Amino acid sequence: MNFNKMEPIVLSSSDLYEYFQCANEGGMRYSSKTDTLLLITKSSGTSSLKKNFYADKWDETHSRFYFTGEGRIGDQKLTRQNKRLAEYLTNTTRLLLFEQNAANSYIFYGEVILDGNFEKSMQPDSNGQMRMVYLFPLKIIGNMDQDFLIKKQGNINLLSIHELKKKVSQESDISKFIKQKKLPQRIARSPYVVELARRLADGICQLCKKNAPFISKDNKPFLEVHHNEWLSEGGSDIIENAIALCPNCHRKIHNLRDQKDIDICKKSIESYNLSSNS
Ligand SMILES: [Zn+2]
Ligand SMILES: [Zn+2]
Protein backbone atom coordinates (compact mmCIF):
# COMPACT_ATOMS: atom_id res chain seq x y z
CA MET A 1 0.00 0.00 0.00
CA ASN A 2 2.10 2.84 -1.27
CA PHE A 3 -0.11 5.82 -0.64
CA ASN A 4 2.51 8.09 0.79
CA LYS A 5 6.21 8.45 0.54
CA MET A 6 6.93 9.05 4.19
CA GLU A 7 8.92 6.62 6.26
CA PRO A 8 6.55 4.11 7.81
CA ILE A 9 5.95 4.52 11.51
CA VAL A 10 5.79 1.12 13.13
CA LEU A 11 4.42 0.59 16.61
CA SER A 12 4.20 -2.43 18.88
CA SER A 13 1.12 -3.54 20.84
CA SER A 14 2.60 -2.06 23.97
CA ASP A 15 3.13 1.28 22.16
CA LEU A 16 -0.55 1.25 21.24
CA TYR A 17 -1.47 0.51 24.81
CA GLU A 18 0.90 3.11 26.23
CA TYR A 19 -0.26 5.92 23.95
CA PHE A 20 -3.96 5.20 23.67
CA GLN A 21 -4.78 2.96 26.64
CA CYS A 22 -6.86 0.78 24.36
CA ALA A 23 -7.66 -2.92 24.48
CA ASN A 24 -4.99 -5.31 23.23
CA GLU A 25 -7.24 -7.31 20.93
CA GLY A 26 -9.52 -6.76 18.00
CA GLY A 27 -9.67 -4.71 14.83
CA MET A 28 -11.59 -1.85 16.43
CA ARG A 29 -10.01 -0.76 19.70
CA TYR A 30 -11.70 2.05 21.54
CA SER A 31 -10.16 3.89 24.44
CA SER A 32 -12.46 5.96 26.59
CA LYS A 33 -9.43 7.46 28.32
CA THR A 34 -8.18 9.11 25.13
CA ASP A 35 -11.52 8.98 23.24
CA THR A 36 -9.83 7.48 20.21
CA LEU A 37 -10.88 4.54 18.09
CA LEU A 38 -8.00 2.57 16.61
CA LEU A 39 -8.94 0.86 13.37
CA ILE A 40 -6.61 -2.01 12.63
CA THR A 41 -6.58 -3.81 9.32
CA LYS A 42 -4.33 -6.81 8.69
CA SER A 43 -1.95 -7.28 5.80
CA SER A 44 -2.98 -10.12 3.58
CA GLY A 45 -0.52 -12.87 2.87
CA THR A 46 1.99 -12.24 5.64
CA SER A 47 3.33 -15.56 6.80
CA SER A 48 3.72 -14.58 10.44
CA LEU A 49 0.12 -13.49 10.63
CA LYS A 50 -3.21 -15.15 10.06
CA LYS A 51 -4.92 -13.83 6.95
CA ASN A 52 -7.22 -10.87 7.44
CA PHE A 53 -10.60 -12.28 8.33
CA TYR A 54 -12.34 -9.17 6.98
CA ALA A 55 -12.18 -8.07 3.34
CA ASP A 56 -11.00 -4.50 3.90
CA LYS A 57 -9.99 -2.77 0.69
CA TRP A 58 -8.86 0.43 -1.02
CA ASP A 59 -10.98 1.91 -3.78
CA GLU A 60 -9.55 2.05 -7.33
CA THR A 61 -7.94 5.45 -6.85
CA HIS A 62 -6.45 4.55 -3.45
CA SER A 63 -8.11 7.56 -1.91
CA ARG A 64 -10.56 5.72 0.27
CA PHE A 65 -10.15 2.69 2.45
CA TYR A 66 -13.17 0.50 3.10
CA PHE A 67 -12.91 -0.83 6.61
CA THR A 68 -15.18 -3.73 7.59
CA GLY A 69 -17.10 -3.37 10.85
CA GLU A 70 -16.85 -5.79 13.78
CA GLY A 71 -18.79 -9.04 14.27
CA ARG A 72 -17.56 -12.43 13.10
CA ILE A 73 -20.77 -14.45 13.08
CA GLY A 74 -24.06 -13.66 11.34
CA ASP A 75 -25.16 -10.25 10.12
CA GLN A 76 -23.20 -7.41 11.67
CA LYS A 77 -25.09 -5.10 14.00
CA LEU A 78 -24.93 -1.37 14.39
CA THR A 79 -23.84 -1.58 18.01
CA ARG A 80 -20.66 -0.98 20.00
CA GLN A 81 -17.74 0.24 17.83
CA ASN A 82 -19.76 -0.07 14.60
CA LYS A 83 -22.22 2.39 16.09
CA ARG A 84 -19.47 4.69 17.31
CA LEU A 85 -17.91 4.76 13.85
CA ALA A 86 -21.26 5.26 12.09
CA GLU A 87 -21.90 8.24 14.38
CA TYR A 88 -18.47 9.77 13.82
CA LEU A 89 -19.79 13.11 12.63
CA THR A 90 -21.80 13.67 15.77
CA ASN A 91 -19.45 12.32 18.44
CA THR A 92 -16.06 13.56 19.66
CA THR A 93 -14.04 10.42 18.93
CA ARG A 94 -10.95 10.60 16.73
CA LEU A 95 -10.02 7.78 14.39
CA LEU A 96 -6.54 6.41 13.71
CA LEU A 97 -5.80 3.81 11.06
CA PHE A 98 -3.14 1.09 11.39
CA GLU A 99 -2.13 -1.93 9.38
CA GLN A 100 -0.94 -4.91 11.34
CA ASN A 101 1.77 -6.56 9.25
CA ALA A 102 3.20 -8.99 11.83
CA ALA A 103 2.20 -10.32 15.23
CA ASN A 104 3.54 -7.31 17.12
CA SER A 105 3.93 -4.73 14.39
CA TYR A 106 1.47 -2.02 13.43
CA ILE A 107 2.10 0.50 10.65
CA PHE A 108 0.53 3.85 11.44
CA TYR A 109 -1.22 5.39 8.44
CA GLY A 110 -2.58 8.47 10.11
CA GLU A 111 -5.72 10.05 11.35
CA VAL A 112 -8.77 9.24 9.25
CA ILE A 113 -12.26 10.61 8.86
CA LEU A 114 -15.41 8.80 7.94
CA ASP A 115 -15.75 9.93 4.34
CA GLY A 116 -19.41 9.39 3.54
CA ASN A 117 -22.04 6.92 4.70
CA PHE A 118 -21.25 3.33 5.49
CA GLU A 119 -22.25 0.73 2.91
CA LYS A 120 -23.64 -2.75 3.35
CA SER A 121 -21.90 -5.66 1.71
CA MET A 122 -21.74 -9.46 1.88
CA GLN A 123 -18.79 -11.37 3.29
CA PRO A 124 -18.46 -14.88 4.71
CA ASP A 125 -18.64 -15.14 8.49
CA SER A 126 -16.38 -17.35 10.58
CA ASN A 127 -18.61 -20.36 9.82
CA GLY A 128 -18.27 -19.72 6.08
CA GLN A 129 -21.87 -18.49 5.76
CA MET A 130 -22.46 -15.35 3.69
CA ARG A 131 -23.79 -12.55 5.84
CA MET A 132 -24.18 -8.75 5.84
CA VAL A 133 -21.26 -6.57 6.91
CA TYR A 134 -20.80 -2.83 7.18
CA LEU A 135 -18.11 -1.16 5.11
CA PHE A 136 -16.95 2.20 6.43
CA PRO A 137 -15.27 4.52 3.88
CA LEU A 138 -12.22 6.16 5.47
CA LYS A 139 -9.97 8.90 4.20
CA ILE A 140 -6.58 9.76 5.61
CA ILE A 141 -6.26 13.40 6.54
CA GLY A 142 -3.26 15.59 7.09
CA ASN A 143 -2.59 19.09 8.30
CA MET A 144 -3.65 20.60 5.00
CA ASP A 145 -6.91 18.73 4.76
CA GLN A 146 -9.12 19.52 7.67
CA ASP A 147 -12.61 19.18 6.19
CA PHE A 148 -13.57 17.11 9.16
CA LEU A 149 -13.08 20.08 11.45
CA ILE A 150 -15.86 21.84 9.61
CA LYS A 151 -18.06 18.78 9.48
CA LYS A 152 -17.66 18.19 13.18
CA GLN A 153 -17.80 21.88 14.04
CA GLY A 154 -21.56 21.84 14.59
CA ASN A 155 -21.02 19.28 17.28
CA ILE A 156 -18.08 21.08 18.86
CA ASN A 157 -20.14 24.23 19.22
CA LEU A 158 -22.59 22.30 21.34
CA LEU A 159 -19.98 21.16 23.86
CA SER A 160 -19.89 22.98 27.17
CA ILE A 161 -16.57 24.45 28.26
CA HIS A 162 -16.42 21.66 30.85
CA GLU A 163 -16.75 19.04 28.10
CA LEU A 164 -14.16 20.81 25.95
CA LYS A 165 -11.64 20.87 28.79
CA LYS A 166 -12.21 17.18 29.42
CA LYS A 167 -11.81 16.36 25.72
CA VAL A 168 -8.62 18.39 25.42
CA SER A 169 -7.10 16.71 28.47
CA GLN A 170 -8.05 13.28 27.06
CA GLU A 171 -6.17 14.17 23.90
CA SER A 172 -2.95 15.01 25.67
CA ASP A 173 -1.74 11.40 25.26
CA ILE A 174 -2.26 11.70 21.51
CA SER A 175 -0.25 14.92 21.52
CA LYS A 176 2.53 13.13 23.36
CA PHE A 177 2.42 10.38 20.75
CA ILE A 178 2.59 12.88 17.89
CA LYS A 179 5.51 14.66 19.45
CA GLN A 180 7.53 11.56 20.27
CA LYS A 181 6.94 10.03 16.86
CA LYS A 182 7.30 13.36 15.04
CA LEU A 183 4.03 13.05 13.18
CA PRO A 184 2.76 16.50 12.25
CA GLN A 185 1.66 15.60 8.74
CA ARG A 186 -0.15 12.45 9.69
CA ILE A 187 -2.56 13.83 12.15
CA ALA A 188 -4.79 16.85 12.04
CA ARG A 189 -4.67 19.70 14.50
CA SER A 190 -7.15 19.13 17.25
CA PRO A 191 -10.38 21.04 16.58
CA TYR A 192 -11.03 20.87 20.32
CA VAL A 193 -7.85 22.74 21.20
CA VAL A 194 -8.83 25.46 18.72
CA GLU A 195 -12.33 25.77 20.12
CA LEU A 196 -11.19 25.75 23.75
CA ALA A 197 -8.53 28.42 23.12
CA ARG A 198 -11.25 30.61 21.58
CA ARG A 199 -13.68 30.02 24.43
CA LEU A 200 -11.03 30.85 27.04
CA ALA A 201 -10.19 34.07 25.20
CA ASP A 202 -13.86 35.02 25.31
CA GLY A 203 -13.71 37.33 22.29
CA ILE A 204 -10.53 39.15 23.37
CA CYS A 205 -7.19 38.96 21.59
CA GLN A 206 -4.74 37.57 24.10
CA LEU A 207 -1.90 39.78 22.88
CA CYS A 208 -3.31 43.30 22.36
CA LYS A 209 -6.25 42.58 24.71
CA LYS A 210 -8.69 44.26 22.32
CA ASN A 211 -11.99 42.84 21.14
CA ALA A 212 -11.99 40.56 18.09
CA PRO A 213 -12.26 42.75 14.96
CA PHE A 214 -15.61 41.33 13.86
CA ILE A 215 -18.21 38.67 14.51
CA SER A 216 -17.85 35.84 12.02
CA LYS A 217 -20.58 34.21 9.93
CA ASP A 218 -20.97 31.48 12.51
CA ASN A 219 -21.71 34.16 15.08
CA LYS A 220 -18.44 33.95 17.01
CA PRO A 221 -15.85 36.67 17.62
CA PHE A 222 -13.22 36.20 14.92
CA LEU A 223 -9.92 35.11 16.49
CA GLU A 224 -7.20 32.86 15.10
CA VAL A 225 -5.54 30.18 17.17
CA HIS A 226 -1.76 30.34 17.27
CA HIS A 227 0.71 27.85 18.76
CA ASN A 228 3.18 29.74 20.90
CA GLU A 229 5.85 27.18 20.21
CA TRP A 230 5.28 26.62 16.49
CA LEU A 231 4.08 23.18 15.43
CA SER A 232 6.59 23.26 12.58
CA GLU A 233 9.34 23.62 15.17
CA GLY A 234 8.23 20.81 17.42
CA GLY A 235 5.56 22.58 19.44
CA SER A 236 2.69 20.46 20.72
CA ASP A 237 -0.93 20.78 19.74
CA ILE A 238 -2.09 21.11 23.33
CA ILE A 239 -4.07 23.82 25.05
CA GLU A 240 -0.99 24.84 27.08
CA ASN A 241 0.59 25.91 23.79
CA ALA A 242 -2.43 27.48 22.08
CA ILE A 243 -3.63 31.06 22.15
CA ALA A 244 -6.39 33.03 20.40
CA LEU A 245 -5.19 36.19 18.67
CA CYS A 246 -6.70 38.84 16.42
CA PRO A 247 -5.48 38.55 12.80
CA ASN A 248 -3.19 41.60 13.20
CA CYS A 249 -1.44 40.25 16.26
CA HIS A 250 -1.20 36.83 14.64
CA ARG A 251 0.59 38.37 11.63
CA LYS A 252 2.77 40.44 13.90
CA ILE A 253 3.93 37.54 16.02
CA HIS A 254 4.80 35.48 12.93
CA ASN A 255 6.54 38.39 11.25
CA LEU A 256 8.53 39.85 14.15
CA ARG A 257 8.80 36.92 16.58
CA ASP A 258 9.26 39.53 19.27
CA GLN A 259 10.20 37.88 22.56
CA LYS A 260 8.06 40.39 24.47
CA ASP A 261 4.96 39.29 22.55
CA ILE A 262 5.80 35.63 23.05
CA ASP A 263 6.12 36.26 26.79
CA ILE A 264 2.75 38.03 26.92
CA CYS A 265 1.18 35.02 25.22
CA LYS A 266 2.89 32.70 27.69
CA LYS A 267 1.47 34.70 30.61
CA SER A 268 -2.03 34.56 29.12
CA ILE A 269 -1.73 30.82 28.72
CA GLU A 270 -0.53 30.42 32.32
CA SER A 271 -3.67 32.21 33.49
CA TYR A 272 -5.99 29.68 31.79
CA ASN A 273 -8.28 27.92 34.18
CA LEU A 274 -8.12 24.38 32.86
CA SER A 275 -9.82 22.67 35.74
CA SER A 276 -12.67 20.80 34.16
CA ASN A 277 -14.84 21.45 37.21
CA SER A 278 -15.31 25.07 36.27
ZN1 LIG B 1 -4.52 41.52 18.91
ZN1 LIG C 1 0.39 31.16 14.29
TrEMBL record:
CDD domains linked to this entry: HNHc
Pfam family, any one: SRA_ScoMcrA
Molecular function terms from GO: endonuclease activity; nucleic acid binding; zinc ion binding
Annotated InterPro entries: HNH (IPR002711), HNH_nuc (IPR003615), SRA_ScoMcrA (IPR058712)
Segments forming domain HNH: 205-255
Domain (ScoMcrA-like SRA) ranges: 23-144
Cited Gene3D superfamilies: 1.10.30.50
Protein name per its UniProtKB record: Uncharacterized protein
Source organism phylogeny: Bacteria, Pseudomonadati, Verrucomicrobiota, Verrucomicrobiia, Verrucomicrobiales
